[in-house]
Design goal:
Strand content: over 45%
CATH superfamily of the largest domain: Immunoglobulins
Helix content: under 10%
Order of helices and strands: EEEEEEEEEEEEEEEEEEEEEEEEE
CATH architecture of the largest domain: Sandwich
Structural class: mainly beta
CATH class of the largest domain: Mainly Beta
Distance between the termini: 42 Å
Radius of gyration: 26 Å
Shape: elongated
Largest sheet: 6 strands, mixed
Number of strands: 25
Length: 324
Amino acid sequence: MLKTGRSRAMVGAALLAPIAFGTLPLSAQTVPSESHSRAPGPGAPRSDVPANTTVVPRSGKDQRPPADPAGTGLVKLVAVLTEDGQAIEQGLVWRVFRDKPGPDRKPVLIEMHREMTPTLRLAPGEYIVNVAFGRANLTRRISVGPEQGAQERFVLNAGGLRIIPALAGHEPINEKAVSYEIYSDERDQHGQRVRVASGIRPGIIVRLNSGLYNIVGSYGDANAIARADVTVEAGKISEATLTHAAGMATFKLVARSGGDAFADTQWSLVNAQGEVVKESSGALPTHILAPGTYTVSAKNAGEVFQKTFTLRAGQSLQVEVLRQ
């Protein structure tokens, strides 16, 4: 289930309440930009271009700084979130590649900058420039002349996404047990969505190119999964609440009801369809599970004992399996 603000909707119907970026210190809250930020130039095969990178032609808005006395071209790079936005002042990584791939057909990196508005001093020619802002990327070809400089303006059309977890019954949720994967709306050759980011924690602002994304949230280490589609708008932070339906079950192998748990026990949990949900070992394993009916098997000293039980959302259940 996904909700924004005070409204709720079923999982898959994403309602977003955008908040203007303003001066929010995004760089302190987002995931480092090194991941998913490599982008080759147009000289390389299209399969080399990352799925979350937008490739656009060279901008015609050149503002010319003085030419370098040594004759090399000067190019000042500026990045903005939207066409009419101000220059981004933190969190950028610039990469400059040769316009032709190397012998291995991979792009050849010649410079990398973490300055927000770097000025490049390059020999005349064509270059491919990639700017990364978190998971948002933009790749462009630029031309450098021998006697003139230029300002190249990169419009990222990027926004931010912050995901808040909740439980269906409004119980407190252990945020440390929640993580998210984010998939773009683009599809690979097998028709599957392309994964943009993984291991995202609740409350973190993730910078993304504007567009439609699919969130997959995992609560615990078993099958308490929630999914939803969300839209990221350029220049805004979209905050979404993803609601999980889940309960907690602790397993215990005993000789009699209320007795001590047997150690060295191997556990296997299957759902009503006979699919294995979780395997573990120990005297008292505890797992967060989606609501439903399960059969748990306990193997101890070469013998196997079973019990079927039903778990409801918000329930905390101790399942005793009798060793007899």
